[in-house]
């Protein structure tokens, strides 16, 4: 499935579906879909947060790929730490009709400094690190990743900066620089923009822009949609993303 599968999203999810019977939940869910980067905040202790893209579509030249599903599970280990599993199931629509499970990761994320995202003063600072796990029918190796995250919220916008260094599954160095800007946090529907540049040394360079929106349906449910366009080496990649984030206490 080529580059479309490999670079669909750095923030995919574990292959599989999660059945949830109780949607009247009380925990807050602030979507970090539809982004490739993330924020300097973690899921509440004892809560499970699910970021689900039921069906997303990407195309690069004649290549067409359907992602169904794209799933990320975040579990709050403590007030400042969460554990994440993520990955996605990609279906080639252009020729081979092959299905792959890719983007699998097991991560820990911790808040190093509480700030405006935690209703305190100054920037919020976090780190996220862990393993890049093997896939099925693609991405057979194992790698590692480390990210530094800084977030700041003002009444009129919220901004997040990510700097990530990785050793890929193919044992190459990778650098990812990302900026996210959101509209006012108290808006029910807030516009969002993301720009990132990624370089896997010796393989590819990608510069990407995303324009979208997040609808905070209620405290525990957020719906997102976005369109991403990227320059990947000499090729243009387009991607449509849409999904939902919801959370609930496990205790």
List the helices and strands and how they pair.
Layout: H1 2-6, E1 47-53, E2 56-60, E3 63-76, E4 81-92, E5 99-113, E6 124-132, E7 143-153, E8 158-167, E9 173-182, E10 189-200, E11 204-218, E12 221-232, E13 235-249
Antiparallel strand pairs: 1-3, 1-13, 2-3, 2-13, 3-4, 4-5, 5-6, 6-7, 7-8, 8-9, 9-10, 10-11, 11-12, 12-13
Account of the 3D structure:
This protein has 251 residues and is an all-beta fold. It has a single domain, classed as monomeric porin ompg (Porin, Beta Barrel), CATH 2.40.160.40. Helices cover 2% and strands 59% of the residues. The chain has one helix and 13 strands, in the order H-E-E-E-E-E-E-E-E-E-E-E-E-E. Strands 1, 2, 3, 4, 5, 6, 7, 8, 9, 10, 11, 12 and 13 form a 13-stranded antiparallel beta sheet that branches. The longest helix is centred in the N-terminal third of the chain and has 5 residues, at 2-6. The protein is globular, with a radius of gyration of 17 Å.
Number of separate helices? 1
Q: CATH superfamily assignment?
A: monomeric porin ompg
Range of helix content: under 10%
Could you give the order of the helices and strands? HEEEEEEEEEEEEE
Global outline? globular
> How many domain modules?
1
Number of strands: 13
Question: Which architecture per CATH?
Answer: Beta Barrel
Give the mean pLDDT. 90
Distance between the termini: 41 Å
CATH topology: Porin
What proportion of the residues form beta strands (DSSP E)? over 45%
The main sheet comes to: 13 strands, antiparallel
**Which spans of ≥5 residues are poorly predicted at pLDDT below 50?**
12-27
User: What structural category do the secondary elements indicate?
Assistant: mainly beta
The rounded Rg comes to 17 Å
CATH class reads Mainly Beta
């Amino acid at each position: 499935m080529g580059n479309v599968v490999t670079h669909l999203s750095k923030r995919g999810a574990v292959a599989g579906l999660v059945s949830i019977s109780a949607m009247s939940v009380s925990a807050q869910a602030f979507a970090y879909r539809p982004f490739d980067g993330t924020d300097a905040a973690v899921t509440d202790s004892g809560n499970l947060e699910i970021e689900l893209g039921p069906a997303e579509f990407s195309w690069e030249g004649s290549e067409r790929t359907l992602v169904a599903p794209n799933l990320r599970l975040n579990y709050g280990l403590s007030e400042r730490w969460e554990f994440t599993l993520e990955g996605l199931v990609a279906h080639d629509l252009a020729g081979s009709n092959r299905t792959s499970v890719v983007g699998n990761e097991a991560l820990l994320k911790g808040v190093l400094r509480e700030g405006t995202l935690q209703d305190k003063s100054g920037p919020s600072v976090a780190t996220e690190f862990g393993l890049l796990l093997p896939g099925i029918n693609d991405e057979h190796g194992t790698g590692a990743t480390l990210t530094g995250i800084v977030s700041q919220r003002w009444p009129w916008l919220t901004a997040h900066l990510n700097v990530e260094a990785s050793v890929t599954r193919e044992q190459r160095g990778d650098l990812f620089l990302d900026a996210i800007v959101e509209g006012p946090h108290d808006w029910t529907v807030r516009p969002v923009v993301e720009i990132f540049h990624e370089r896997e040394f010796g393989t590819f360079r990608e510069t990407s822009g995303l324009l979208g929106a997040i609808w905070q349906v209620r405290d525990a449910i957020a719906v997102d949609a976005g369109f991403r366009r990227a320059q990947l080496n000499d090729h243009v990649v387009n991607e449509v993303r849409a999904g939902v984030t919801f959370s609930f206490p496990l205790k």
